[in-house]
Amino acid sequence: MQNSISPPTSTRLHRNVYEVIQSYVQLTKPRIIVLLLVTTGAAVFLASEGQVDPVVLLATLLGGWLAAAAANTINCLYDRDIDQIMERTSLRPLPSGRVRVRDAMIFAGVLAGLSFILLNTVTNLLAALLAQAGIVFYVLIYTHWLKRHSTQNIVIGGAAGAIPPLVGWAAVTGEVSWSAWVLFLIIFLWTPPHFWALAIYIRDEYAEVDVPMLPVIAGNEVTAKQIWIYTWLMLASTVLLVYPLGDCGLVYVVSAIALSIPFVKKAWLLLGDCENTEVARSLFKYSILYMMLLCGSMALDSLPWAQQVSYTVAQRVETLLSLVSLGA
User: Fold this and answer.
1) Is residue 103 part of a domain?
2) Predicted confidence band of residue 324 (pLDDT cuts 50, 70, 90)
3) Do 217 and 266 reside in the same domain of the chain?
4) How far apart are CA 203 and CA 198, in angstroms?
5) In the predicted structure, residue 3 carries a pLDDT above the cut 80
6) InterPro entries annotated for this entry (predicted)?
7) What is the C-alpha end-to-end distance of the chain, expressed in Å?
8) Which domain holds residue 185?
9) Are 61 and 54 in contact (CB under 8 A)?
10) How many domains does the chain have?
11) Residue 7, class by beta-carbon neighbours within 10 Å (0-12 exposed, 13-18 middle, 19+ buried)?
């Protein structure tokens, strides 16, 4: 934890209870959590084969939210020194003085504890432990060790963001299967294109606070090439849910193909014009939409009607191929 932080130049006091709540919610970085919950929900649907227990789903999402909120709060505590320097983060609750360090630490501890209790009580111990492991990995491995010391910070650190689907899968089945690890892999490989595109867009801000993001250290050209490579690795990993695992069918296949086309196009444009921050911003924004829609297609594909569509289409294709082979 960084301690050499000068007091905020101005402290904006809370005027009412609503503003107090707003400050603590801001500590949790709610916009980031939404995407994590989408990936968790997709895992719950896939593991349940569309027969979702609403109590398990709700408890898993709430437990996941609590764990992610705890991790993000600790991240805000650790990064409050650089948040104070960067213009876009200087008004966050800690650097602005709206929330005290001690109170934020207590808040994070309560959130983590509630997450463990809820997941362990309603789902199972494995899901609860995985959620806590996500907090530890995000705080110790990414925030403390990698973020300020390695250009591979978001590559290795991306594992923290890929843990939520493991939690979702474990909450339903009590184990972590190959399918759960494929979900982990998809998100793990998605993370570099997602964050490096953002890093190109705000490279100067990272440079200002000495965070060694890849564009700052190696330049935009190298970063764009890495984005291109990881994009194709990610797209290849999405196929594994169809073959050889067979967890997803036609709805997912069609969606995955359709969603991959703009992703590849934007990554290609960035590769050809790596200094264009607007292209990088466009890729960053689309990567969020891509992951949300891809997870949505997984959930839809797990439903009985979608499975019936896949079965019917497979039967007709098989019949057609039989007729063709007989005609030959």
Assistant:
1) yes
2) confident
3) yes
4) 8
5) no
6) Protohaem_IX_farnesylTrfase, UbiA_prenyltransferase, UbiA_prenylTrfase_CS, UbiA_sf
7) 72
8) 177-309
9) no
10) 2
11) exposed
Tell me if 147 is assigned to some domain.
Answer: yes
Residue 23 CA to residue 237 CA, distance in Å, equals: 39
Do the domain assignments include residue 288? yes
Count of beta carbons in the 10 Å neighbourhood of residue 140: 13
CA distances from 95 to 12, 79, 89, 241 (A): 10, 9, 8, 44
CA–CA dist 155, 181 (Å, integer): 17
What is the reported pLDDT for 319?
75
Q: Confirm whether 61 is domain-assigned.
A: yes
Q: Is the pTM of this model over 0.85?
A: yes
Same domain membership, residue 108 and residue 185: no
Q: How far apart are CA 240 and CA 236, in angstroms?
A: 7
User: Is the same domain home to 99 and 242?
Assistant: no
What's the pLDDT tens digit per position in 206-232? 888 888 999 999 999 999 999 999 999
Q: What is the CATH classification number for the domain harbouring 133?
A: 1.10.357.140
Nearest alpha carbon to residue 35 among 263, 234, 298, 296: 296
